[in-house]
Specification:
This protein is an alpha/beta fold. The protein contains 19 helices and 11 strands. It folds into 3 domains: 9-178, Rossmann fold (3-Layer(aba) Sandwich); 185-434, N-(1-d-carboxylethyl)-l-norvaline Dehydrogenase, domain 2, CATH 1.10.1040.10; 440-474, Up-down Bundle (Single alpha-helices involved in coiled-coils or other helix-helix interfaces). The protein has helices at residues 16-27, 39-48, 60-65, 81-90, 108-119, 133-139, 149-162, 180-208, 214-225, 232-240, 265-276, 281-293, 296-305, 317-349, 356-362, 373-383, 394-417, 422-434, 441-452, and strands spanning 9-12, 32-35, 54-57, 72-75, 99-102, 124-131, 142-145, 165-166, 169-170, 456-457, 464-465. The strands form 3 sheets. The chain has a 7-stranded mixed sheet, sandwiched between helices. It has a two-stranded antiparallel sheet with strand order 8-9. The radius of gyration is 25 Å and the shape is globular. The structure holds 6-phosphogluconic acid.
Length: 474
């Protein structure tokens, strides 16, 4: 039964994520009023909320009247135009000082525009990234809030209580003003794309070069997950290989089409990195490989014409698996390095003033990219908060040094067998370029000046120079 102005929080959108968050909030003592246009979703929540201080309706007026004022309302609806439509629908019902929070994967520029738009009506707006999928929402996600600090303070204890915990610390913290939360979530997803592509490359080489079956793959990924590679994505990968298909009784992975979908957050990360001129090749490659995988028909035709050398493994199988484990570790480090380096630049450019130690800390639990490695990354930023790249941290550099021989060996094997390992290659090329005090960009400068008089800089004196190059006579 709804009572006027008694519920602590409102939730707009009670699909699985929204519903699970409502139950999570209720577990921690918060009363929640929830709304969905879809009567079925309302019924599902009503069934699950027995004995809880939770109220669900399809009526916006009833929903708004049920909330304590000033209201604190969470929106969990698909990113894009729907968010704007929901804002338009509720705006006339809200009062000055109310708070709207968008917990979806919205593009940070949309969040900036919405903050500005709602400011005119004196409604506070926060963009909040949330990660961990359905289970995270129910049992503890990683939460990345951004917005005005004084407004965040009003909801901080609720966020602390529903978030995942690592070492008794909640995997959430205020990240910065404006769209900081959504920006950090976007980069989280970029890293997620990179790690998923790297694991897929390990799968490819283990399956095709070593001829491993799904049980063997399950064992390899399970073993890796017990060591320094410990991470959520490896854990679910190991599980995937032993999942049975309910239709055929065979392993489900064998029945899944090799063409990946995406909602676009990885691509957004690449676009923004290009805009800020920050190199994040592993993430770029991961996006491109999802795109390439979708050309299934073309790939099948090309496979008939374009043959690879198909060399098999030359050497000891278990030694190769250990090298691959090291190669994955190496490329995992460089993937986080690229995402964090982007955050460091964005922090200044967009005036988020991000604390990268805090970000690494709140990613250690609850989210899709949680991994033991994040503790090493957190420590690197605790030693030097303005570190431009974790590759410059002594502890991280030592780890890369130790595993670089392995990644070179794995990439050789992939090249010889015609097995594509683009993210690993991108990762090694990033490392080799980043550690080069000299790069052939001098030639690119010369070429630009030759054909377009774009000028160049010199390494022996200050200034900009142009040369009348020794053009051949036509
Ligand atoms: C998370 C996930 C989540 C979602 C992605 C999937 O952190 O919980 O990242 O946000 O699963 O949106 O993204 P793609 O559809 O782009 O793969």
């Amino acid at each position: 039964m709804m009572k006027d102005k008694t519920y602590d929080f409102g939730m707009i959108g009670i699909g699985t994520m929204g519903r699970n968050l409502v139950l999570n909030m209720s577990d921690h003592g918060y009363s929640v009023a929830a709304i969905d246009r879809n009567q079925e979703q309302v019924e599902v929540l009503k069934k699950e909320n027995e004995g809880r201080n939770v109220f669900a309706t399809t009526d916006p007026h009833e929903f708004i009247n049920s909330l304590k004022t000033p209201r604190a309302i969470i929106m969990l609806v698909p990113a894009g135009k729907i968010v704007d439509a929901v804002i338009q629908e509720y705006l006339p019902l809200l009062s000055e000082g109310d708070l709207l929070m968008d917990w979806g994967n919205s593009h940070y520029t949309d969040t900036n525009a919405r903050i500005e738009q709602l400011e005119k009506s004196k409604i506070h707006f926060m963009g909040v990234g949330i990660s961990g999928g359905e289970s995270g929402a129910r049992h503890g996600p990683s939460i990345m809030p951004g917005g005005p600090k004084d407004i965040f303070d009003l909801v901080a204890s609720m966020l602390d209580s529903i978030a995942a915990k690592v070492d008794n610390e909640p995997c959430t913290a205020w990240l910065g003003p404006g769209s900081a939360g959504h920006y950090v979530k976007m980069v989280h997803n970029g890293i997620e794309y990179g790690l998923m592509q790297l694991i897929a490359e390990c799968y490819h080489i283990l399956k095709e070069l070593l001829g491993m079956d799904d049980d063997e793959l399950h064992h390899v990924f399970t073993n890796w997950n017990q060591g320094k590679l410990h991470s959520f994505l490896l854990e679910i990968t190991a599980d995937i290989f032993i999942q049975q298909d309910e239709i055929t009784g065979q392993r489900l992975i064998e029945k899944i089409l090799d063409s990946a979908h995406q909602k676009g957050t990885g691509g957004w990360t690449s676009e923004d990195a290009m805009e800020l001129q920050v190199p994040i090749p592993v993430i770029d490659i991961a996006v491109s490989m999802r795109n390439l995988s979708a050309y299934k028909k073309d790939r099948m035709l090309a496979g008939l014409k374009l043959k690879s050398p198909k060399e098999m493994l030359n050497g000891n199988k278990s030694e190769f698996i250990s090298s691959l484990e090291e190669a994955f570790y190496f490329s995992m480090i460089t993937t986080y390095a690229q995402g964090m380096a982007l955050l460091q630049v964005a922090s200044g450019t967009y005036q988020y003033n991000l604390n990268l130690e805090t970000i690494a800390r709140i990613w250690r639990g609850g989210c899709i990219i949680r991994a033991s490695l994040l503790e090493d990354i957190r420590l690197a930023y605790s030693r030097k908060p303005d570190l431009s790249n974790i590759l410059l941290d002594d502890n991280i550099a030592e780890k890369l040094q130790k595993s670089q021989e392995a990644i070179r060996k794995v990439i050789h094997a992939g090249i010889d067998a015609g097995i594509p390992l683009p993210a690993m290659m991108g990762s090694l090329a990033y490392f080799d370029s980043y550690r080069s005090s000299w790069l052939p960009a001098s030639l690119i400068q010369a070429q630009r000046d030759y054909f377009g008089a774009h000028t160049y800089e010199r390494n022996d004196r200050e200034g900009t120079f142009h040369t009348i190059w020794n053009h051949k006579e036509d």
